[in-house]
Amino acid sequence: MAGAEPTGTLKVSREPNVSPERQVAETALDPLFGGAIVTAAFGKRITGEIDLTALYQALHDRAKAVRDNKLGSAEDMLTAQAAALNAMFLELARQSGANMGEYMQAAETYMRLALKAQAQCRATLETLATIKNPPVVYARQANIANGPQQVNNGTAAPRASEPASSPTELLETEHGKRMESGTAGAAISGDPAVEAMGAIDGTADGGRQGTCQPQRRQGRKAAGAKG
Predict the structure, then answer these.
(1) Non-local CB neighbours of 201 within 8 Å, separated by 6+ positions
(2) pTM of the full structure
C-alpha cells in the first residue's frame, strides 16, 4: 500500500504548547514505550510484525487499568507465565532424563535449568496469590509514657530517700511547734545533792580522796532528808 508507514514507526499526537523535540523526549523516557519496543522485537517471531503505535496504545490502556486497581490483566499475565514456566520445567526435566546414565554432564545441565524454571514458576504463583489475597498487617500499639524516662542497666538500685527531718529537728519539734529555749532550761531543776557534789575543791588539803568523801556523804544525807 503506497504511503503506508512501517509498522516500526510510532505515531504520537501533537500536544498543544509542547515543542516536538520535548514531546519526542517525553515519549523516549516513557517506560511503556520501551516495553512496546521490546515486546514487538520478541513477539514478531510468534505473531509477525506488530504495529508499534497500536501496541503502545494497548499498553497505556492496561497501565491505566492497573492504576485504577483493575488487576485482571496482571492476573492473566501471571497465570500465563506460570503455565509457560511449568512447560519449560517439564521439557527440561525430560531432556535431563533422556541423557541420564550416558551423558551425565548434559543431564546435569538440563536438570539445573529445569529446577530454575520450576522455582520461577513457584515464585510467579506466589505473586499471583499475593495479588488475589493481600496479607493482613497487624500493627502493635507501643505504650509510650509521658515525660522523660531513665533506664538504668547494670547499675545499683537507687538509695532510699533521706528522712524529711534530722534527729535534732525531731527532738526540737513537737506537733509542728518548736520548743522554747527557756522551757528546756526550766526542765532541769537544781538538785541540792548535785550542787553539793559539784562543789569540790581539791586544793583545800592537797588530797582528792579525803575531800571528796565528806562532800559525797553530805550530799547523800541531804538527798535522804529531802526524800
Answers:
(1) 211
(2) 0.52
